[in-house]
Amino acid sequence: MKEKLKSLTPVFYTPMLIYFVLFVAISLIAIASATPLAWVQFPGRNFVFRQIAFFGVGLVATFCVLLFEMKWIRFLRWGIYLIFLSLLLLIFFIGESALIPNINGATRWILIPGIEFQFQPSEFMRIALILVIADVIQKHNEKVLHEKRTFQTDLWLIIKSLAVIAPPLALIYPQPDTGIAILILLTTAFMLITAGIKWTYIIVIGGVGIVIAYTLINLIINNPEILLDALDLSPHQLNRIYGWTDPFGTILNHGRQLAFGLQGMGTGGIFGHGFQSHASFFPEAHTDFIFAVIGMDFGLIGSVVVVSVCLLFNFSILNTAVLNRDHYNSHLCVGIFASLMTQQFWNISMTLGILPITGVTLPFISHGGSSVLSSMIMLGLVLRSYVEGLTIKRSTTIFREDVSFFEEKII
């Protein structure tokens, strides 16, 4: 055990830990500042204490992940996948009940009795999918060398990846959880791009996707009844689209959250209104709209600090992926980078009214047990990859030095 703990010492030399500490500080300050707004919905709850508890549990989970070598985590990938797929099936078949509460029109949580904790399986399904897709890509690339790739081989990789994500998506979308479904699709697309698929295919697929998205938005605005039948959209999902396209025109109902969030951030200026200003009220201030609280109370400076820490953290993950000589670990880090980056981008963009509101949290900062725990498990996987990558790099360096010394002796 001592040797295993000693092997983890490189973790303390990565800047990711510094960025994580900054995330924790930002999260606790922002949630404390959002508490007066959150109390309108949830009177008297100590959200800061709950977030500290979530981070505590998350640290334990991160440490446990670090203890496992990546080869064992890779070996368990399908077991992890099936566990969370089973939980999604449970939600799908049972539906709204005492075990599965309906919160804001969605049934995506499993209530853990006694501790007031709502567990969201879809958050962890994202991790399972990254583990599996990284393996699919690695095995595919081992069989099909880069110079032998064709349209057929790239198409086959896309089909295999879609086959992996299709069952979870079919269960997550009806909850409804459009946000996680979109994140899974974007993460998979990013992993496939970095796997070596030709850019022309991605451009064509992306172009088709943009056209479809534009068409859907126009249909939602002009002929919503068509999509209600075709895509089985719930009124809750349609209302969010209406609130997004015209927040101030629907400020008394669908657009209230976005309109007042924009109003709060818009009046925050450079330095903000100050801690716990509650200058503007909007729902879910401590969770989905935590970035709006930061912009309102701490202004442009607070917002820039959050975005900067996110970018630095993401760069560290991507750097770990690039420098890691174990290809599976590299694909895994790329998947985690894509998942967190797209989640950050979507949360901030929906707060600014650029993208529709989908209930996506801001990783490491928003209040929420499942969100914090899943983010910290991803952190543990990246740190484990960092340790193993550094070990391989050092071993290779020592081997090269030994070979050079041997060659010098012969000469």
Descriptive overview:
With 411 residues, the protein is mostly helical. It has one domain (2-390). The chain contains 15 helices and two strands. It has helices spanning 2-7, 16-41, 47-67, 70-75, 77-94, 121-143, 151-172, 178-194, 199-222, 224-230, 235-245, 256-266, 290-323, 327-351, 369-410; strands spanning 110-112, 117-119. It has a two-stranded antiparallel sheet. A hairpin with a 4-residue loop joins strand 1 (110-112) and strand 2 (117-119). Helix 3 packs parallel to helix 15, helix 6 packs across helix 14 and helix 13 runs parallel beside helix 15. The chain is globular, with a radius of gyration of 23 Å. The relative contact order is 0.14. The model is unreliable at 397-407 (pLDDT under 50).
Q: How are strands sequenced across the largest beta sheet?
A: 1-2
Euclidean distance between termini CA atoms: 44 Å
Structural class: mainly alpha
The radius of gyration is 23 Å
Give the biggest sheet: 2 strands, antiparallel
Work out the strand percent. under 5%
**How large is the count of helical segments?**
15
Shape label: globular
Instruction: Provide mean pLDDT, rounded.
Output: 85
Could you give the count of β-strands?
A: 2
Low-confidence parts: 397-407
| N-to-C order of helices and strands | HHHHHEEHHHHHHHHHH
- Count of all domains: 1
Helical residues, percent: over 70%
